[in-house]
Amino acid sequence: MATPTALLSVADLSASDIWELVKKAGSLKQEPAKPYLQGKVAALLFEKPSLRTRVSFDVAMWQMGGHTVYLSPNEVGLGKRERVQDVARTLSRYVNCIVARTFSHQTLRLLAEHAEVPVINALSDHEHPCQALGDLLTIFEKKGKLQGLNLTFIGDGNNVATSLILAASLVGINFAIASPPAYSLQETIIQQAKTLASQSHADLVFTSDPRLAAQNADIVYTDVWTSMGQEAEAEVRRRAFASYQVNTQLLSLAKKDAVFMHPLPAHYGEEVADGIVDHARSIVFDQAE
Fold first, then answer.
1. What would the pLDDT profile of 176-232 be if each residue is shown by its tens digit?
2. Beta bridge partners of 246
3. Is 244 in contact with 154 (CB distance < 8 Å)?
4. Same-domain status, 54 and 177
5. Within this chain, do residues 48 and 87 fall inside the same structural domain, yes or no?
6. Which residue from 135, 136, 200, 277 puts its CA 20 to 30 A from 18's CA?
7. pTM, whole model, 2 decimals?
8. Does residue 42 contact residue 61 with C-beta atoms inside 8 Å?
């Protein structure tokens, strides 16, 4: 696998790249940690708060012999106190990799354009590629395969949904998404996914009917209706998504051995009914791992 100068989109990887990463990650979980990253330093440049993303990068670097430097919004003032270009150039003199969690995807593009070290997207308003890659690992661990599975996403066509449909289309997972018309995936993403799916022979379904999307699903997946930075839209979104909650009734339409996934944090009583995260079919905390 060629080392990318940046991982801003999951589609920066090929299908073979993704398979290699999934298999390597699975083997790393089974063997004692080795110092593959001895002496390496990653900057965690976060504009948004994080639990799982920050801890996973921090622990992974430590387990493999490396070190992280966490930079909070107040410390850097990315694009405010200091130009993004200058932050990229400066950090390149100190660290081996920049892991950035930003509000705007354009900030990531600027970082990647001006950094002299790899830049990894740890979440932007456009994509969440590391989440999708981790999700594929979890699905592979639970189902023993990826190609030919049916993955259903219920809810907002957001950054997580974007990375998921691109990843699924790359590796041959059939993907269905149910969203209110005003909150569907961007048309450019739909066309990109269709191109990728034509090569992997994955089927794609776009609908506003969550019950239709859930039928015959191997995996039922949802995410929050209101993402960070959209708080002013919360009430409007609650009304728009009122019929898009994953509950026992919706889950019953999927296959009998279907699993439930959510990237967390969850808004209980909104996109997910009480009890679903703790349901026997839920693999949410395996997913978080």
1. 999 999 999 999 999 999 999 999 999 999 999 999 999 999 999 999 998 877 788
2. 272
3. yes
4. no
5. yes
6. 277
7. 0.95
8. yes
